[in-house]
Amino acid sequence: MKHNDGRSSLANSFFSLTESIGQVLIRSQSRPLMAWQQTSREGRPLFLSTFDMSETQSLIDTIEKVDMFSVFARLMRTSGANDLISGEGSFTVFAPTNDAFNKIPDQLMNGWLSETSQERLKSVLSYHIVPTKIMAASLGTTRTADSVSGEPMKFTDLSGLRVNRSGIQARNMMATNGVVHALDTVMTPPTAEEAVQIQGQSRTATQASANVDSQLS
Fold this sequence. Notes:
It contains 8 helices and 12 strands. By secondary structure, it is of the alpha+beta class.
C-alpha cells in the first residue's frame, strides 16, 4: 500500500527515511540501504529500488550493482573505460542513468558501438569522471572541474544541481575509491570554444566572489 507521500507502508513501518532530491537513504537496524525514487513527469513517486550499502565497494562494483546504471556499467566494460576508475585514487563519477542513454539517437549510439576500439565512446564516458572526490554539497561552490581526460565541466545550483546541462538525480553514492552521482542526461566533451567559455566563466565567478569577500572584510 502507498501513502500520500509515495512511500510503501512497509518502508514507513520498518525504516527511518532521510530524504534528499531524487534519493532516499534508508537506515535499518541491520544494514544501510540506498533507495532510488523514480518520479513521473508530474512529480508523482512511482517506485523505490534499493541496494545494500553495508559494505562499501569499489566504484566499478558500486556502479555494477545499481539497476539504473546497467547501460553505463556495460559500456564502461566494453569500451575499457573501467580502467580509468580501477585504481586506488579518489574519483567522482557522474553516471548517466538508463533513461539518460535512451535519449541518445540510435544512429549516434550505433556509431560509437560499431568502432572496433570504441574510442569515441570511451572519450564520452571519460568525460563523466573527475580525478578527485567531489561531494554534492560542494558542487555549487566548486564551479568547475576537469575530467580525467582534461576537458572542463561546470557545476551550477540554481534550480537544482547540474553538471553542464545535465541534472543530478541521486547523489553521494560512496565507494572505496570515490563517489557516484546519477545524471539524467549523457554529457559530451566540449568543443575547444566551449571549453574556453567554461574556463572563462569560472574565472569570472571566482573574481566576483573574491571582490565580495574583500568588501566584507
